[in-house]
Amino acid sequence: MAEADGAAQEREPTARDAALEETRGLRGAPVTGALLAANAGVFAAQVSLAGHLRFALGGADPQDHTLWNAILRWLGGNDSTFTIADTRLETLVTSCFLHGSILHLGFNLLVLWQVGPFLERAVGRARFLPLYLGSGIMGSAFSAIAGRLFGASLSIGASGAICGLIGAMLVLGARTQGWRGPLARQMAGWLAFLFVLGLAKNLQGGMVQVDNAAHVGGALGGVIIAATWRRGVTYTAQLSRIVVGVCVAAVIVAGLTVYVRNRTDRYLFMGVDERLNAASRAARSGQCDEADRAMKRAQRLDPGNERLHDRAQEINRECLTPSSPPPLDSARP
Fold this sequence. Notes:
Layout: H1 2-9, H2 15-22, H3 30-50, H4 62-74, E1 78-79, H5 80-85, H6 91-94, H7 102-123, H8 125-150, E2 154-155, H9 159-177, H10 182-204, H11 212-227, H12 237-264, H13 272-284, H14 288-301, H15 306-320, H16 328-331
Antiparallel strand pairs: 1-2
């Protein structure tokens, strides 16, 4: 009898059960899963290059911190000085996949896990991945501009892109439920929390700061991109593959550009004085074209520096002055 009662309680899965199953975890959200894996994989590569697990915490002491930052720059971190002065636009993309510590990575991946699958299933991968990258690029751009205006800074992390996802969900919530609806209010709360967290961390001080410029830029990018989406417009499977393929190609090209420039640009990561010294050495060696190139690269870092302007004129005069011929006695056999 007990067996008969148990069998009677069993039922066939319904369409609603299947729909609920599809919304669990990363089901129906392959791009989110790929982004989670990519960020985690890049961080593992960062720690491997650093050579010790202590770098997973961002460096144990100031010397470690300096080395860690150098590795992050080499891998494509968004250093505002070089991003703008040397037009390193590729770092606007690559910096979105770098993280400063395991805590930094873990927090971003947790938020991406919470927000990404729902949004990707709602709008489709052909909208989701361009939204993620576009928001990340805009967040990086805001960070670079803020760093250039208020002091050089190294910006890394997926938080700008993730804030873009939250901004897009804010727009979707406002469209479907109104600005006072639960989804819009929840997303607005998330953005406010991230901004206040960043402000509190920055006021606290310390080596690690939170990049609120990237958060604001990323959120604004997400809002703008989501506002361009039209209701009722769907992508074919072929078009979705093309859009995703183009986005993946853009990330690969950015990474390859970082790789090539690291190995071919002799002035990369040089400060003003280092570039100035390189220009002086080239001028003394008679390599006037190289001296001019090094001098221009130095001036890009500090365009308003009068000392550099005067030194550039000196190097130009030095190059324009013909070398004195050797004495006659020294020319005799």
